[in-house]
UniProtKB/TrEMBL annotation:
This is Uncharacterized protein. It comes from the Bacteria. It comes from Actinoallomurus vinaceus.
Length: 316
């Protein structure tokens, strides 16, 4: 194991897009009273500064792609048919995240509410859901509240080599990228050569690694906010608690720690790989190590949501 150095940007940028056919004459005027506590006062302050800007354009003038975001058919249609896009551009000091980002997203949600629009998070490449317990920003930051999206890239050449009748958990045709970390000053995380029939353990490892890196980074920022680089262990031991912290949930299934290897592949991406000395493929590692270690959970409510559902008579 050896340390490696991660650059931590002083300032991070993010965008949110609201696709709407009812653009407000003055978007700044509709925002503050629609932003709930505890974000209202910081939102009003941020809107007075250049670090939070709102721009409305004709949909035909947009230069960014929205056709590949994760969305339901109804939202896709609404995005396609919208006449305007409201762009929210946000800048924050990395040391002030994630609170600043929550303020920005609370403003974006307020704009979407005011205009009957579809709220898109281009960095995570997904539409924010209007329904459910996570529809309003929480007072605390829960990573599982749609902050991170996924991109699945299939290596078609590898997929063509699938042996007919062969073991579907043995191929390596899939690359999974966890998106949305850059607004918090971290690279995206990717795992390559995953078996397409067994993607969940690999995806859950990415979520657990993200949880660990974010938690460590925020602690590091609080202690030494002026440093541009951070030393990391390139073979971190990821604990089941890192996975459950992502969802803000108390563990209800067993898991095991996993030693993984982090490799810098570009300025914007960190590869998550089997540790040095592991002789098999990523598919072998996923089957032998990740599947028994990572709880087979696609998503789960936060503890406070479960308590809320119980008190509302919704069952455990
Ligand atoms: Zn495959």
């Amino acid at each position: 194991m050896s340390p490696f150095v991660l650059s931590v940007p002083e300032v991070v940028t993010s965008h949110y897009v609201i696709a709407t056919s009812e653009p407000p004459a003055d978007p700044y005027a509709v925002v503050p009273w629609r932003v709930p506590e505890p974000f209202r006062k910081p939102a009003i302050e941020a809107l007075k500064t250049p670090r939070l800007g709102i721009f409305t354009i004709d949909a035909g003038e947009a230069t960014w792609r929205l056709d590949d975001v994760l969305a339901c058919e109804e939202d896709r249609r609404r995005i396609r048919e919208s006449s305007h896009q409201i762009l929210l551009v946000h800048q924050a000091l990395t040391v002030e995240q994630p609170h600043r980002e929550q303020v920005a997203r609370a403003v974006a949600r307020a704009l979407a509410d005011a205009t009957g629009g579809v709220l898109i998070d281009p960095q995570a490449r997904q539409v924010l859901l209007r329904d459910g317990l996570a529809r309003a920003e929480r007072g605390w930051f829960r990573m599982g509240d749609q902050w991170f999206g996924t991109r699945y890239d299939v290596d078609e050449a590898a997929r063509r080599l699938h042996p007919p009748g062969g073991d579907p958990t043995a191929c390596g045709c899939l690359r999974i990228t966890l998106l949305g970390l850059r607004r918090f000053g971290l690279p995206d995380l990717a795992i390559d050569k995953v078996a397409c029939a067994q993607d969940l353990p690999a995806l859950n490892l990415l979520r657990a690694v993200a949880s660990r890196l974010l938690t460590d980074q925020w602690r590091w920022c609080r202690e030494r906010p002026a440093r541009p680089t951070r030393r990391l262990d390139d073979h971190p031991k990821i604990e089941p608690d890192d996975f459950w912290a992502f969802w803000g949930a108390t563990p209800y299934l067993d898991g095991r720690p996993v030693i993984t290897r982090l490799v810098t592949s570009s300025a914007t991406t960190l590869e998550v790989a089997p540790p040095d000395g592991y002789a098999g493929t990523v598919a072998d590692w996923s089957r032998e190590v990740l599947a028994p270690a990572m709880p087979p959970v696609v998503g789960c409510p936060a503890d406070e949501d479960s308590a809320h559902a119980r008190s509302a008579g919704g069952g455990a």
